[in-house]
TrEMBL record:
Protein name: USP domain-containing protein
Region (Disordered): 1-28
Domain of life: Eukaryota
Length: 301
């Protein structure tokens, strides 16, 4: 990727941004189509994320705007508003992207300096951090004593070890984490000496959940579910982000289970229809880039 070049943001207000309508052969991508962002200045993490989130939003703007707002953070509200302006031909998707790059540079510049490389995981951690607790993690013994208690607000779940409980799919990982026994001697309850368990309890069902998977070989389940207040909430696979040679690409899975691919450098704004979800090997992309993130969408979106 070319060296980072920092540019000063002219404004943090979408309404004051100059409108540059698309021209040339790329204008054939009408805003009702599956569409991506043309790469510019280390933008690929944003390009890949917006390719999935915009096309999800465009599948049902009113429904998805409400879902985005349910996160309870300003980023998802701004995303829904910006997507609406793009759909109304008031801005290009690249202008929407660069608005968020400037805004993140202004508000969280230590993580998102404009022109520098960033990660899709960092974007999802920032954009899906809600006002309500997403998951509660407790270490509790069989006698009911709670040894440790933490909560997390970001709708990002990172697969990892579940001790003696083996898993190969995301659903197995999620199920194992509902109650995972700890085996070493130091895990015994200091009050009663009983075995301690690590328990993850989901408190809300966010519309989008990200799964960083670059360090696992887990397959991408077409559907998963999490348990919230005793009820299973289903999710469907909505997108996959790939990474390799310092560049991100992405696939978006629409409601018909068609898979669309975008590379902001090679395809620019175009989205390539790859085929049906059941027929495609999702382990790597066209350029053999490895999977980096799974993005799951609440099944009723």
């Amino acid at each position: 990727m070319k060296p980072a070049v920092k540019r000063k943001a002219r404004s943090s207000d979408m309404n004051s941004m100059p409108h540059a309508p698309p021209n040339g052969p790329e204008a054939a991508n009408h805003n009702s189509d599956v569409v991506g962002c043309r790469w510019s200045n280390n933008s690929c993490a944003f390009d890949a994320t917006l390719f999935i989130l915009y096309n999800l939003w465009n599948s049902g703007p009113a429904r998805c705007s409400h879902a985005f707002e349910s996160f309870g953070n300003s980023w998802m509200v701004m995303l829904a508003s910006a997507f609406s302006k793009f759909a109304d031909n008031k801005h290009t998707l690249e202008e929407v992207r660069d608005f968020f790059r400037h805004r993140l540079n202004r508000d969280v510049g230590n993580m998102f300096a404009f022109g520098n490389e960033t990660s899709v995981e960092a974007l999802l951690m920032q954009w899906t951090k809600g006002s309500a607790e997403f998951v509660e993690v407790t270490y509790q013994c069989g006698g009911g004593h709670i040894c440790s208690h933490t909560t997390h607000f970001c709708a990002v779940i990172e697969p990892g070890s579940t001790g003696t409980l083996q898993w190969t799919t995301l659903q197995q990982f999620i199920t194992n984490n509902e109650c995972m026994p700890l085996t070493d001697n130091e895990s015994m309850c200091i009050q009663c000496g009983q075995q301690t368990f690590r328990k993850e309890t989901y408190l809300i069902a966010p519309p989008i959940i990200g799964f960083p998977v670059s360090f696992t070989r887990t397959v991408s389940d077409s559907t998963i579910s999490i348990t919230v207040v005793g009820e299973k909430v289903p999710y469907r696979l909505g997108g996959i982000v790939y990474f390799g040679e310092r560049h991100y690409t992405a696939q978006y899975i629409d409601t018909n289970l068609d898979v669309w691919y975008n590379d902001g450098i090679a395809l620019r704004r175009r989205a390539l229809l790859e085929g049906r979800l059941v027929d495609i090997d999702l382990m790597t992309d066209h350029a053999r880039k490895a999977r980096d993130q799974f993005i799951y969408i609440c099944a009723d979106l």
